[in-house]
Description:
heterodimer; A: 143 residues; alpha+beta; Heat Shock Protein 90; 4 helices; globular; B: alpha/beta; Transcription Regulator spoIIAA
Amino acid sequence: MASYERTFTLHVPSSTENLALIRDFVSNVGSQAGFGEKEVARIALAVDEACANVIEHAYGSDNTFEVTVRATIDPEQIQFEIIDKGRGFDPSQIQPKDVEELIRQRKSGGLGLRLIRTIMDDVQYQIVPGEKNELKMVKKRQQ
Amino acid sequence: MANTFQIERSDKGDVRVLALDGYLDAHTAPVFEKAIQDEFESGRLRMVVDCSRLSYISSAGLGVFMSFIEEIREAGGDIKLAAIVPKVYQVFEVLGFPALFEIEDSVDAAAAKFGKGQGV
Lengths: 143, 120
């Protein structure tokens, strides 16, 4: 089988207003990659969560920065890279708490991370201090 | 583009019904948060959230339910959820919400769960 790779990139200002635009982008790329409607909706949710984290935490809701979403499709999988230049923090260091515990503490943080880890097959973070932060998420095609 | 969100308020007996319409994400969650806060401060603690026209929810929206529920229950009220479409329900399910919130197929069924004359 011939191998191929296609890359699509979206740059948007770091405002939560653009989450809808990001979801539309992810949905279009996911559909073009041949993922089913239900799977595409889940992938769009995972990317939304990652970008919302960047906007609210890495950039502290300052909308003068930029978020980059890069999608790469190949025969085995779809990969999304979320790139920012904000305050880097490594979510893999945070132990997700269960929902009951969060309710008792009246907190809701960490839910997005739990969704990302549930939906995607592989999640990796790379922080280059002062340069960029990159979150890579992979969803494999069902065989 | 899919980013509109609105809340319609109505009453079913002494139960306040908040009907969510559209996309509930990190951008629109503050609108929902304010709506719940307003109901709480007005003393309307028996709430049903009608999700039949809710097309999308992310963790920011789920977080609103979580941050208020304990306080509302301690005050004798509750938030019950109704008519969640399958695409949205799967997000609630991933996070274990069905074990923590009463979720019914219709607003009527959710409102009936409060019982007559009980609570606040």
